[in-house]
TrEMBL record:
This is Glycosyl transferase family A. InterPro entries: Glyco_trans_2-like, Nucleotide-diphossugar_trans. SUPFAM superfamilies: Nucleotide-diphospho-sugar transferases. Pfam families: Glycos_transf_2. Keywords: Membrane, Transferase, Transmembrane, Transmembrane helix. The chain crosses the membrane at residues 220-239, 244-261, 273-296. PANTHER family: GLYCOSYLTRANSFERASE (PTHR22916). One of its GO terms (molecular function) is hexosyltransferase activity. Residues 2-147 form the Glycosyltransferase 2-like domain.
């Protein structure tokens, strides 16, 4: 996936500017891999200690960069050929913008889970948003230093924390003028369940040092509430209190149904409603487990 990401960078339309690529990894084998067939592509690879967070890797990459503009990419995205050019245009189009990001797309034959993830990323398009995922972020070097670096104390949620700080200084603009495919997007529910446990581990830590807006509160309270209600329903069934068990289970399913109806409206029936319900039935408990486990230890995940 990293090779595909670099290939998409090599295909960028760059008549009026130059691009340098800095790969920061914790996998020593990358140094011996042929990452690109483009011999003219300026590319540097740095290997960092295994204990460092994603934020640490990104912050280190900035220390090695020379350009006036910075683009942060995950190692599993494929950019449209006009991505760099359009990011530059969109950032310059409005002095109030501090970070810009492109729209996520997927193939028409993508599995339902990947489509669901893509629809969720595109709830708001061609407008200012409250948060941007870290898969593709474009900004000036000066803006990066004003925001204050990525939060190295967080294992996950670093993009939310970083762009939340940025939103206090300027606009976060999500544009359809350029696109990207998330090659490593979730495609199977079991893999998603494991990843969501990992992703949820920094939920509590991400609250430190910032004012939490009302729109974020459901993401912190709904998942654990659902998990608790499911556990209560199970206990009540075991001891024979069936009616209360059904009530607890119904209350647990209520937010799943509400969120599913909202997403189904966004997806415009392109994904079966049963698949949407399954998504949230997996997502909420996994996030709750991740939040709970993350309080006590750092979770490792094997990338496939």
């Amino acid at each position: 996936m990293l090779i595909e990401t670099i290939e998409s960078i090599a295909l960028q339309q760059t008549e009026s500017f130059n691009i340098d690529i800095i790969v920061v990894s914790q996998t020593p084998e990358i140094q011996t891999c042929r990452l690109s067939d483009n011999q003219e592509l300026p590319l540097q690879v740095f290997i960092r200690p295994a204990h460092e967070t994603i934020s640490s890797l990104r912050n280190f990459g900035v220390t090695q960069a020379k350009g006036e503009y910075l683009a942060f990419l995950d190692a599993d995205v494929y950019l449209s050929a006009n991505w760099a050019e359009q990011m530059l245009n969109e950032l310059r189009a409005n002095d109030g913008r501090i970070i810009v990001s492109a729209q996520q797309i997927c193939h028409d034959n993508a599995p339902p889970l990947e489509k669901i993830r893509t629809f969720l990323s595109n709830v708001e398009i061609d407008k200012n948003v409250a948060f941007l995922p870290g898969r593709n972020l474009f900004m000036t070097r000066d803006a990066f230093h004003k925001i204050g670096f990525f939060p190295e104390h967080l294992v996950t949620c670093e993009d939310y924390y970083f762009t939340d700080k940025a939103a206090k200084l300027g606009q976060l603009f999500y544009t359809s003028a350029a696109t990207y495919r998330h090659i490593g997007e979730d495609k199977e529910y079991k893999a998603m369940f494991d990843k969501e446990i990992w992703r949820g581990q920094s939920n509590i830590q991400s609250l430190s040092g910032r004012k939490v807006p009302l729109r974020e509160l459901p993401s912190f309270f709904v998942p654990p509430a659902i998990l608790i209600l499911i556990i209560i329903a199970g206990i009540l069934l075991i001891i024979g209190i069936t009616k209360l068990a059904m009530l607890a289970l119904a209350l647990a399913l209520l937010p799943v149904v509400v969120y599913s109806l909202r997403l189904q409206n966004i997806a415009k029936s392109e994904v079966a409603f049963a698949k949407v319900v399954l998504f949230y039935a997996v997502y909420f408990p996994a996030r709750a487990i991740g939040t709970l486990v993350g309080v006590f230890k750092t979770i490792k995940i094997k990338q496939s």
